[in-house]
TrEMBL record:
Residues 437-447 have a biased composition (Polar residues). Keywords: Oxidoreductase, Pyruvate. CDD domains: TPP_PYR_PFOR_IOR-alpha_like. One of its GO terms (biological process) is response to oxidative stress. This is Pyruvate ferredoxin oxidoreductase. Residues 384-447 are annotated as: Disordered. Belongs to the pyruvate:ferredoxin/flavodoxin oxidoreductase family. The keyword Ubl conjugation does not apply. Residues 384-402 have a biased composition (Low complexity). The lineage of its organism: Bacteria, Bacillati, Actinomycetota, Coriobacteriia, Coriobacteriales.
Amino acid sequence: MKRFLSGDEAFAEGVRLARPAVISAYPITPQTVVVERLSEMVESGQLNAHYVHVESEHSALSCAMGASATGARTFTATSSQGLLYMAEVLTYAAGGRFPIVMMNANRATALPWNIYGDQRDSLALLDHGWIQVYAQDNQEALDLALMAYAVAEHPSVSLPVMVNIDGFALTHTYEAVDIPEQQQADEFLPPYETRNRFDFEQPVNLGYSAGPEFNRHYQYWHHRDMLAAETVIDEVEQRFAQVMGRQYGGMAEEYRTADAQLVLVCVGSVAGQVRQVVDQLRDQGVPCGMVRLRYLRPFPAQRLNQLLAGKAAVGVLEKDISFGAEGTVFTNVNSALAQGGNGAPTMNFIGGLGGDDITAAQIRNAFARLAALVESDQRAKGAPAAGSQWAEAAAGKASTSAPDSVPDPVPTGIRRTEILSPPQRVADEYPRPGQPGATSSAHSSNCVVFLGVDDEGEVA
């Protein structure tokens, strides 16, 4: 059955189909609609579950962990500051091997206060032991609600899963979504069974301590089983395709990469925009493609190296910045490529912070920068500079977003991180904190943005 649903509503339908026994809820924008719809389902009798309205996000995850420890399938949801408030409990849930599923509506973190979507909240917590997956659209959001339980509850995994959905871009945007029948969902996802629970007949140790002599064993087993999740994810997606008729591309999916020389790696809903730009540039002779990272934990290093082997340049477009370094996704991609012996030059593009638009012009400019990077490397090696032709083609319709028609070649051997910035001196219109005219809550710019800032941190 198809319905016109927001991403929040679609995910709530997926949770309903999964038949959780306990839902712990604390609302926070832009996640609120998920727990609202689930409360309505419980009230109407559509969903037979204990609905617990707790007093904070910390309590929401604590409640879910306690319920999971009794052997119940559990669900909770959060966003942004709420996820950060949960941080203490994240490691308890992961280390306790409780297969909770949590939806996180990706949203900017304060300060400045902002309710719109970027991915700094979840990416800041990659190392807290949870499987992390990112949806591209509302259909995938619903489907991931079901698949997340199948992965989390698999005996060789037994780890919590965080399903990330872009705030507002997905959570509050409506599109047609195919809702499976309950019979299909039950065929795909059987009732939850585990020995990792309170049991008076066969007691086990839960929430234990482990000193230096034994602690490393638990950490190794956690890491081992996180890696084992890669195989389980593939198996779950194959079974989902058999039951539901929808096939996903694994932990990392590609688009037109087979013969591509310039590849842009991205995460989440922006992949739809990147696909359109790839098609446009292909029509103009630019050999470009896209890789969408669906899972960031476990990180699909082997799959990524397969997709990016032999490419002339790789860019990473992300809605995140690790201040003082580079984008977190960029760090992970570079590490994987280095371990795989892939020496392709890479470049980082930061955009979408605080819900700012990532435009088609910016994406074209990103490909133009990658082409200029190839040209620079080719000239350094004395090879024909095919990159210059690609750069000209890619920059052909990006003139509104770039100061020059063709980006300057990028010197090799330097950190290549670009910030997508508004095309005016931000400090003039929106003073920095501490400057005359600054207020406690800075506004965000709605201007078209372009790639590049100079060494002084001002707009190029």
